């Protein structure tokens, strides 16, 4: 289990799947994801079985300090040679949106990615219209490195997809910055 300031990240369990299916069939939740087709419990079971066999994926449940499962976060397409992976996250329980759980989950996963898995780069894709997520990623140290113009179609319109990443050196610098200040005496 990975412990953050407000969240715990733990392995996804089969018992989590019904909750995930409900979230991933909620139009408000999936408007920010690449999913667009209704998801059945069987679809999620198939995903879970494939996930268990794939060493390039590490998906974790996001729990509050009270143990409530509120979403998922993970590293996909882990490239062990080039030491990079794509981050994906969603807070499925909308009651917990905008309360800092996603930011804490991302920082907790980045600490694991850089300090335990020894990755050098974590990247993500975010839809240009998802301002809340973009602000969160910037707070976590991600920088915009590119844009795929009109790469995502939803609600009758094409939208840009923004590519963002954070490097191990940037993460290390952000972690050293607070402790670098010394009190004057």
List SSEs in N-to-C order. Answer: EEHHHEEEHEHEEH
The average pLDDT is 92
Indicate the low-confidence ranges by residue numbers. Answer: 179-185
Structural class: alpha+beta
- Distance from N terminus to C terminus (CA atoms, Å) equals 40 Å
Radius of gyration using CA atoms only: 17 Å
Q: What would you say this structure looks like, in words?
A:
This protein is of the alpha+beta class. Helix content is 32%, strand content 34%. It has helices spanning 17-23, 27-30, 41-52, 101-115, 131-139, 168-180, and strands spanning 2-3, 7-11, 58-64, 69-79, 84-91, 121-127, 143-154, 157-167. The protein has an 8-stranded mixed β-sheet. Helix 1 (17-23) crosses helix 3. The protein is globular. 24% of the residues are buried. Mean pLDDT is 92; it is low at 179-185.
Write the layout of secondary structure elements.
Blueprint (H helix, E strand, L loop, with lengths): L1 E2 L3 E5 L5 H7 L3 H4 L10 H12 L5 E7 L4 E11 L4 E8 L9 H15 L5 E7 L3 H9 L3 E12 L2 E11 H13 L5
Parallel strand pairs: 5-6
Antiparallel strand pairs: 1-2, 2-3, 3-4, 4-5, 6-8, 7-8
Give structural attributes.
185 residues; alpha+beta
Write a concise synopsis of the structure shown.
By secondary structure, the chain is an alpha+beta fold. It has helices at about 15-25, 25-30, 40-50, 100-115, 130-140, 170-180; strands spanning about 1-5, 5-10, 60-65, 70-80, 85-90, 120-125, 145-155, 155-165.
């Amino acid at each position: 289990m990975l412990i953050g300031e407000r969240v715990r990240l733990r392995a996804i369990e089969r018992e989590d799947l019904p909750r995930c299916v409900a979230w991933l069939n909620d139009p408000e939740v999936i408007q920010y994801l690449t999913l667009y087709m209704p998801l059945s419990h069987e679809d999620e079971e198939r995903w879970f079985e494939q996930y268990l066999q794939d060493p390039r994926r590490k998906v974790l449940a996001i729990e509050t300090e009270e143990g409530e499962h509120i979403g998922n976060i993970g590293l996909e397409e882990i490239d062990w040679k080039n030491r990079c992976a794509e981050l994906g996250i969603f807070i499925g329980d909308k009651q917990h949106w905008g309360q800092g759980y996603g930011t804490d989950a991302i920082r907790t996963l980045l600490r694991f990615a850089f300090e335990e898995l020894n990755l050098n780069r974590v990247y993500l894709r975010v839809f240009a219209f998802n301002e809340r997520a973009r602000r969160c990623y910037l707070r976590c140290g991600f920088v915009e490195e590119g844009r795929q113009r009109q790469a995502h179609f939803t609600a009758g319109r094409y939208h840009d997809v923004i590519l963002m990443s954070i490097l191990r050196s940037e993460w290390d610098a952000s972690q050293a910055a607070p402790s670098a200040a010394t009190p004057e005496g």
